[in-house]
Design a protein that fits this description.
This protein is an alpha+beta fold and about 130 residues long. The chain has one domain: Alpha-Beta Plaits (2-Layer Sandwich). The protein is built from 4 helices and 5 strands; from the N terminus they run βαββααβαβ. The chain has a 5-stranded mixed beta sheet with strand order 2-3-1-4-5. Helix 4 links the parallel strand 4 and strand 5. The chain is globular and about 45 Å long.
Length: about 130
Amino acid sequence: MNKFNEFTPFILIARIHVKENYLNEYLQLAEKTDDLVKTTEPGMLHHTFDQDPNDNLSFTWSEVYQNDEAFIKHLNNPIIKEYLDKHNEYGDGFSVEVYGTVGEKCLNIMKGTGLPLKIFNTKYGYSRVNEET
C-alpha cells in the first residue's frame, strides 16, 4: 500500500463565482494568472479554469500539485496574491476542496488563507503522477 503524505501529488478544486458586471475582467485575470503559473511553477502539473455549463458566472480551477512544496510555492507566487486581491473585487464566492493527503505544514497554510476549505484525505489508491517511465 502506498503512503500518501507531503511528498505525494494531490488535486485542488477551487470553486469561484464572479460578480455579474465583472465577467470580462475576471476572464482576463484568470488568463493572466494561468499564463504566469504555467511559466513559473513546474510543480503545478495541471491547471485549468473551467466554466460551469449551467451558470456562466461560476468557474472551477482544477489543479494538480506535484507535492506540498509545489502548493506552498503556488501560494507564494506574486501572481496568486494579485489574483486573490482582484477576486475580492470581481468575485463573490470562493471555496476550496482538496483531494489527497497533505502534510501538517501545508494543511496549516491552507487553513491560514481563510478560504472555505474541505479536505478529502486519501484512504486507498495510487498515483502515477510522479512515477518515472
